Each structure stands twice: as C-alpha cells, then as structure tokens.
Amino acid sequence: MIHQDKDSCCNSKLEFNKKPTPEHNHGDHDHDHDDHDHNHGDMNSKYTIGFSVLLFFLGVLFANVLKADWFINNPTLRILWYVAAYVPVGFPVLKEAFSMMLKKDFFNEFSLMGIATLGAFAIGEYPEAVAVMLFYTVGELFQESAVNKAKGNIKALLDIRPNEANVFRNNTFTIVNPEEVAIGERIQVKVGEKIPLDGELLSDKGSFNTSALTGESKPSTYKKGDIVLTGMINLEQVIEVRTTKLYQDSSLAKILEMVQEASARKAPTELYIRKFAKVYTPIVFFLAVLLTFVPYLFLGDGYVFTQWLERALVFLVISCPCALVISVPLGYFGGIGAASRNGILFKGSNFLELMAKLDIVVMDKTGTLTAGVFKVQKVETTHPQDEFVQLVSAIEKQSTHPIAKAIVEAYPTALVAENVREISGKGLAGVINNQEILVGNTALLEQHTIDFPAEINDIVESIVVVAINQTYAGYITIADQIKEDAHEAIRLMKHMGVQKTVMLSGDKNTITQKVAKETGIDFALGGLLPEGKVEQVEKLKKDNPTSSIAFVGDGINDAPVLALSDVGIAMGGLGSDAAIETADVVIQTDQPSKVATSIHIGKETRKIVIQNITFALVVKIIVLILGAGGIASMWEAVFADVGVALLAILNAVRIQKMKFI
C-alpha cells in the first residue's frame, strides 16, 4: 500500500482521472468493470472542463473583442455567465479545501486558490477568477497525464501477468486461473504464450522473450532444470514447467509490489520541499492580510480597499507552491519509471538521489563482474581419478555454489554423502563409505592442519582442494569468464563521477587481482569471508566519512554488506527473492554496465529536480514583488502559478524520453 502524505498538494489530488489500482487477486470481470468506470469518469471530467473553457473564452470574446453591449452592460448576466464557467472547475477545489479544513489543515493550495478566486469575484474580476481555476484544472490534467506516462512501465508489467494456466490434472491439460495452481504441478506453455507461474523447465530447452521483465530485447535460451519466470513469453516450441511458487509469491508479483510502493520512500529534497510548503503557505496568508490592511496606515484617505485587496489576491495566487510540490515528486517518479524501463528497479526516490551522489562503488566478483558460469579445467589427484571425482561430486551435490554446480554437472554421481556440513567461507565436510571428505579452499585444509603442496597457492584459477581421511588427496581447477561489458562498466562508472572502484571476493586473491587488472578496478581484495566483506566496507565508510558507498552483489550471500552500504545493488536479481528483499536497487539483467546507467538516471533526475526548484522560486519571487507593487495583474499571477507548474511538469517528463548510457 502506498502511504500518502496529506501535506503534499501532489498527493491531495483532485479526483479527475483516478483509476483504482488493480489488485493481484481480481478477476478479468472486475478489471473490465474498473476500466468502464474509469473511462466514464474521464469523459465526464473532459466534458465539464470543456464546458468551462467554452464559456470562459466566449465571455472574453464578447467583452473584449466584440464589445457586445448586451453582455458588457448586463452585470447579472455577466456574473451568472462566469459563475457557470467557474463551478465545474472551482467546485472540486472548494470541496477539497473544505475537506482539509475539517481535518484542521487550513493552509494549503486549495484554500489559497479558493480564497483568491472568491475574492476576485467579490471585486468584480470574474474572468480572472475563472482563469485561475481553469488553468489550475488543466494543469492537474497535464500532471495526471505525466504521471500516467511515468507509470507506463508499471502498467506494462501489469499487462504481462498471465490470466490462465494450462495445468496437467486427471491425465489431461486443463485451463485454470493461475491463482489456483499449487506448487509442484505441471503446466504446459504453447508458443507465443506467457509463462503463468515461476517454475523449473521440464523440457530440454526453451527460448523466451524476457524484455518486459529485464528490458533486454534479445531472446534468452534456458535449458532443462533452469528456473523460468512469470511473464516470460515462449518463442519456439511447446514447453512444460513444474511450478515452484504460488502465483502471489512469484518474482513478478514481488517486483510489482516493490515498484508500486517505491513512491512511499521519499528523497531528502522531496521531503524538504514538503516541509518548506507546510511552513511557507501560512506565511503567505499572513503577508496577504498585511498587504491588504497595512497600506491604510501610510496612505490614509488615499487608501482604496479594493485596490489593495486585489493586490493581496494576486499575491495569494502567485504564491501557490504547486510548481514545487507537484514537479519535484513527479521528477523523481519519472526517474523511477525511466529506470524500470531500462531494467533497473529502485525501491524509492531516496535511493535515486543517493545514486546521483555515489563516490565509491564496491563489487562482488562472482556473478557480478564474472558470469558465474564455471567449467572444470583440470583434475589433479593422488587417487584413481574416477573415484576421486565421484567423491567430490557427492559432497558438492549438497551445495548451491556455482563452482559446486560445475563439478556436479561435469561428474554426475550416484554416491550419497552423509553428515554433510558447511564450514562458512571455507567449504564442506561429509562422510562417504566411512571416509571423511573435506572439499573447499586451502583455508579449510589449514583449519584441519592438513599439509598440501605449496605450489597450489600459485595456481591462478579457482581451485577446489580435497582431503580424504585427513590426508591431502588432490584438487580440481575451475574457470570463470569475465562478463563482456565488465571493463566498459568500470569505465562508465568513472565517467559518471565515481571516484573509486573496489572489488571484494571470497575467491582466492590471485584470481581476484587478475580480474581487477583486466577490468580496470582501482582496488581488489580476495579470500574474504562474508564478515570480511562487511569489515572492508565498514573500513571504507570510516576512512571516507563524507562519501556515499554502493555495494553490488548477488543479493543472497552478500545480504549483510548490501544492508550496510548506503545503496545496496543486487545484480541479476530478477529470480532471487533475497535480492528483491535485501537490496535497495535491483538490476534485472546480468550486466554490470547497468550500474553506470542507474547512476546516469539518478544524476539526470536530480538535475531536472534542481532546475524545477530554481525556476519556480525565481519566477515566483519576481512576480510576487511585481504583484505586491501593483504591476502584475491576476493574469501574470496565473502564469506564475499554473504556467510555472506546467513548465516544471513538462521538464520533469523529459526524463522519460532520454537515452542513457
């Protein structure tokens, strides 16, 4: 649920175009009903606003262009004419102002607009009163349009939620609602259909369009046993999937929830503007009252009440903080939308702002800068090789580490290990046929005071060292590939203003230094346990107290350090519940260059927000001074309020069309 702040005029919207947020559990019939109501509301609002626009411009035409006597010299007709034009656009504002007053909120944009326009009617400035409300309402519609555009990526995700699943029950495939499918059931997906639930691919292989989830246009190929996700589109052949999650627990559902709740976390600039508006509005009221009555003390008989009242009303219209409290959150929302379109999910605008200020980026190695797809390179053992690899594979079957998976894939085994336990950051220990087996890194053997050849420490590749019954038995080397865009990612980060890049890895230091050298990373350290990574980040924060630090990892093993950093970024975290839960930013693809993209989006968003704040304040201060001096009329006031807001909104929308690195 998105928590709204009643102090923000952006969040106290007039209900012109509001559509109920689709819930995950609604059926198709409910959606159709919602859409019908929404469209009906849209048509009504457009007709009423169109009616006001028509009356307003006809009134201006009769009075100022045609100089029609029947209109100009008939005060009753004129006031009724403009009241009729005012009510459709003014009544919702006055109603909202009254509603806010009942909640003891007297100083807000609605009361400002209401007092200013009713006062304009009182002194006979009918067209100006209608113009203020009319342009304000049109501004609301523009803003609604801008928000809807920013929400386009969210709607795209909503649209890819499948509404049926073909499940194997009673020896036949039956179409049911995805919400009715249990974990472990077998589903069939035909060519062109969307996968309705997360699951394990049972077919030998499949090709899928994942663009709606990851932003990547090229098809992705998956093989038997891989996890496929809700919303992927099957491209080549009929496939079967065994479900691993319920519909409401799918990765897509979690991502939707995360994106829809992103606006609940506000950036510091946004929060400051809201506090500013809360203090600023009552001050404006007080100044308007002073502007009305204080001149009497100095002018005496030369004081004309209506003249100074009009200046005060102009002052009120000009002073509305709409441009600030509308365009600032809209700018951040647009940034979140642009990021999502690029396959990057932000959990709030506060993280978008932090990304714009990053000084240090710390990265994991495996799965972040390297592909995490390991292949066995070499087996060296003092035992018969077949027996040796079978023992190692039986132990590694108990691990989910990419290196363990590579060994199991290379050497399938029917052996079963007993009493397998994990030694954190070092490896595994277990028993097979009454033999105690240790499989891990050299630190594991050192912990058990087992001697091994010294030259093992000189091997650059990832290595798995093995001991059988407390005696060194051999090793297996594994190779990992650096991702194609890893070097470019580091270059782009530095181009975006990152002062220092760091790599921390649990892999051996020799291979860590090799990857760092090939990718251009400033500082690297290997052989770290999870707590060692935490210590290194804590040291970085202590040595650089004013710097913003991001950590980029897989979101599973790196949860503590993701939480410790200023911004935790999960790489390739689309299918990882831990990534979505722990990280502040989730990069849905496996491309480290997306980190630079997210920094670029953060910087552009912040630039637009600062432009809007500066522009709004400068214009308002100038016109406020002119209004207080009687130089600016109600028309200039309308521009200073609604015009500035519209320009700020259009500026905020620009980010949706930008191209990022």
Describe this structure in a few short sentences:
This protein is of the alpha+beta class.
Structure, explained:
Helices cover 51% and strands 16% of the residues. With 661 residues, the protein is α+β, with helices and mostly antiparallel strands. A 7-stranded mixed β-sheet has the order 10-22-21-20-11-18-19, with helices on both faces. The chain has a 6-stranded antiparallel β-sheet with strand order 2-1-3-9-4-7, with no helix packed on it. Helix 4 runs antiparallel to helix 5, helix 11 runs parallel beside helix 23 (634-653) and helix 17 (486-495) packs parallel to helix 22 (593-628). The protein is elongated and about 110 Å long. The relative contact order is 0.10.
Features:
661 residues; alpha+beta; six-stranded antiparallel sheet; 23 helices
Q: How is the topology of this model organized?
A:
Layout: H1 28-65, H2 69-72, H3 75-102, H4 109-122, H5 126-150, H6 152-159, E1 165-169, E2 172-176, E3 186-189, E4 199-201, E5 205-209, H7 211-214, E6 220-223, E7 227-228, E8 233-234, E9 239-243, H8 251-260, H9 268-293, H10 295-299, H11 305-319, H12 322-341, E10 344-346, H13 349-355, E11 358-363, E12 375-381, H14 385-396, H15 402-410, E13 418-423, E14 427-432, E15 435-440, H16 442-447, E16 462-468, E17 471-479, H17 486-495, E18 500-504, H18 509-519, E19 523-525, H19 530-543, E20 548-553, H20 559-564, E21 567-571, H21 577-582, E22 585-587, H22 593-628, H23 634-653
Parallel strand pairs: 11-18, 11-20, 18-19, 20-21, 21-22
Antiparallel strand pairs: 1-2, 1-3, 3-9, 4-7, 4-9, 5-6, 5-8, 10-22, 12-17, 13-14, 14-15, 15-16, 16-17
Helix pairs in contact: 1-3, 1-5, 3-4, 3-5, 4-5, 4-11, 5-12, 5-23, 9-11, 9-12, 11-22, 11-23, 12-22, 12-23, 13-22, 14-15, 17-22, 22-23
